[in-house]
Amino acid sequence: xxxxxxxxxxxxxxxxxxxxxxxxxxxxxxxxxxxxxxxxxxxxxxxxxxxxxxxxxxxxxxxxxxxxxxxxxxxxxxxxxxxxxxxxxxxxxxxxxxxxxxxxxxxxxxxxxxxxxxxxxxxxxxxxxxxxxxxxxxxxxxxxxxxxxxxxxxxxxxxxxxxxxxxxxxxxxxxxxxxxxxxxxxxxxxxxxxxxxxxxxxxxxxxxxxxxxxxxxxxxxxxxxxxxxxxxxxxxxxxxxxxxxxxxxxxxxxxxxxxxxxxxxxxxxxxxxxxxxxxxxxxxxxxxxxxxxxxxxxxxxxxxxxxxxxxxxxxxxxxxxxxxxxxxxxxxxxxxxxxxxxxxxxxxxxxxxxxxxxx
Length: 359
Ligand code: KG4
Ligand code: ZN
Hints:
The protein has 359 residues and is α/β, with parallel strands linked by helices. The protein folds into two domains: 6-130 and 313-352, Nucleotidyltransferase, domain 5 (2-Layer Sandwich), CATH 3.30.420.40; 137-309, 2-Layer Sandwich (Nucleotidyltransferase, domain 5). Helix content is 43%, strand content 18%. Strands 3-2-1-4-5 form a five-stranded mixed β-sheet, sandwiched between helices. Strand 2 and strand 3 (32-41) form a beta hairpin. Helix 4 crosses helix 11, helix 5 packs across helix 6 (188-196) and helix 8 runs parallel beside helix 9 (289-302). 52% of the residues are buried. Bound molecules: 5'-O-[(R)-(carboxyoxy)(hydroxy)phosphoryl]adenosine and zinc ion. Zinc ion is lined by residues 121, 125, 145, 316.
């Protein structure tokens, strides 16, 4: 331990299309409080392109980030000089954006003579439930966002084991692609969910790729192709056709997520007999009520605790980065100004491990 009673951390997130900064305080008992959490989602920049354009995202981060950080300090009523450390996402993500956030954090750390913490974005998602719900280790995380679909065993800060991932598209990406091929516009996930409410989920039986295999991996690309072929087969689509396809797609992914989560919880209980099973959900797809309801039913069936942080903290934000920074900072972790930004950075690499401060 560092002997600090508490830590006030600035967190910076720029790995995709959210420019975000937050101030979070962690007290000596490990309880976190969000003092500010400012997120600017770059909708206008990418709207015309039907997806995030990395170069445009990086440029937008450059123009917004200083203002977002200033606003985070103002709203928290904390001066930059009063933060204990500066944390920024150092990967994985769109490298141009990551570089903007990390380089800004380095400049602040150097100018203010504060410690720097280079945060793995996936770790930030993984630890958020400890900020919002004080969840104890170990627990299982299901991360389902536009860029990731993974099961991760969270044993401690820096101590992760990836149990499964997607072999092609991420779940949020599948929602976005289906929304696009049904001409629903963006943001794709919420549009598919909304239209699916009017649809018949039993009209089309879409495939559940990999579901018969024991591995905990996902595959959504074949499902997306099946949706496209079905849409083409009955084109032109009426509003009811679109709703039925959306509902049938959502039913397929709901079943895939529920079956896989059951298997992952079984593995958890085999590895930690007698432990409370805890499933933490993170990522933008956590907002989907159909998937959430499937997970609620599963967890009540197998007597697992289901933890879903408020949706604003499931999607990308600065508070999760500040909190991961706070957890690391309290364990004595400090990163050098030579730390590099990484487009890829799996959570279970040895370099995630926390080496406690000997002092
Ligand atoms: O975590 P997130 O905000 O950004 C990253 O990908 O990092 O997740 C965004 C993803 C998008 O693919 C979006 O379509 C999906 O989450 N999403 C949803 C819903 N809300 C957001 N997918 C299904 N149903 C929703 N209600
Ligand atoms: Zn994310």
